[in-house]
């Protein structure tokens, strides 16, 4: 279906231009991901390559952090700033609540505030991460560790993060897909070849001839398991609950009834990213404290093992955080109060449900049930690859982890739907005015 939609889209001139523009932006992003920041010794960064926080940053930045490149921070500060702005709109900051009700003008003000918060977060995170990596490595990652060097590296990484954010906005305007998500998607896809190579090295290099059939059987089983997980994930990510609604104020040609689509997983992939960041942060701090004390503190080692992905306690803690954030972020994405207010303003209602507070309570109960399914789904998909690594001794493949899989599928679904929307729009435009313009 995807390839058929893509083939049809390439026949339309303006849609083809959007696709090529997106590819060009992604090429620039991948080029910048290989240009190392001046004053940093990347080879010494390999000493802490197993750090969970570094792996998470590699995921969001498209492995740019591994090279400590210009785009090493990626869109991580922008994602954090966007979540902060969304939370502030929930009757926390009156000015933001006011802007959220002003339509297009308010949306522009909120976007501007998001950029300013992104700038501050990017600078703070750049300097903090650089200083942290310098302290955790026995060799100098920063060649000249002075405050001027940290400030210069922080300024370069901040500039790179703002450039990546700007490129994401350009994809939104002139390309296709959600710009930030597409950039993360490209980074994850770029790591798949190295992940496949690591599996090959693990299962086929230095393997005795008698063990080759078992290795091939394992690879076939792994491929089948991946296909099954991808199918289930795609099905759940597209599943939705259709809530019927009726209209009281009818205009000529308007339908008498419709439905309100609520996704089974309304929170998307954000809870997984949030839970991963919170889980890896304590592990990073504990590892830093261990190295500072010469790895001689027993309780620090015990706590570090308990929070590590490689242990069952760490996996359960990670899954619990995903479930909690799913419930929380679902109500951020779908605000029952605003939904009830909008339905009342539109002169519509849910059958057998009173407008106003009754609708708000009904949507809240329904959202709780959907979030329960979504939370369990996200938790299982996220810990299955980690459990597989622990049970079968797979290499640590960040590019094929649960978080990566969710992002890849979600972005692919959005891209296909957007391409179908472009084609449908052009079809109706051609019917009303001129035929579809082809090459």
UniProtKB/TrEMBL annotation:
Signal peptide: none
Compartments where located: Cell membrane; Membrane
Transmembrane helix recorded as keyword: yes
Keywords recorded for this protein, A-Z: Cell membrane, Membrane, Protein transport, Translocation, Transmembrane, Transmembrane helix, Transport
Coiled-coil residue spans: none
Family annotation (InterPro entries): SecY, SecY/SEC61-alpha, SecY_CS, SecY_dom_sf
Keyword Metal-binding: no
Membrane topology: Multi-pass membrane protein
Membrane-spanning residues: 20-37, 68-88, 116-135, 147-168, 175-196, 216-236, 267-289, 309-332, 366-388, 394-416
Listed SUPFAM superfamilies: Preprotein translocase SecY subunit
HAMAP family with a match to the protein in the record: SecY (MF_01465)
Family: Belongs to the SecY/SEC61-alpha family.
Subunit-structure text: Component of the Sec protein translocase complex. Heterotrimer consisting of SecY, SecE and SecG subunits. The heterotrimers can form oligomers, although 1 heterotrimer is thought to be able to translocate proteins. Interacts with the ribosome. Interacts with SecDF, and other proteins may be involved. Interacts with SecA.
Functional note: The central subunit of the protein translocation channel SecYEG. Consists of two halves formed by TMs 1-5 and 6-10. These two domains form a lateral gate at the front which open onto the bilayer between TMs 2 and 7, and are clamped together by SecE at the back. The channel is closed by both a pore ring composed of hydrophobic SecY resides and a short helix (helix 2A) on the extracellular side of the membrane which forms a plug. The plug probably moves laterally to allow the channel to open. The ring and the pore may move independently.
Protein name: Protein translocase subunit SecY
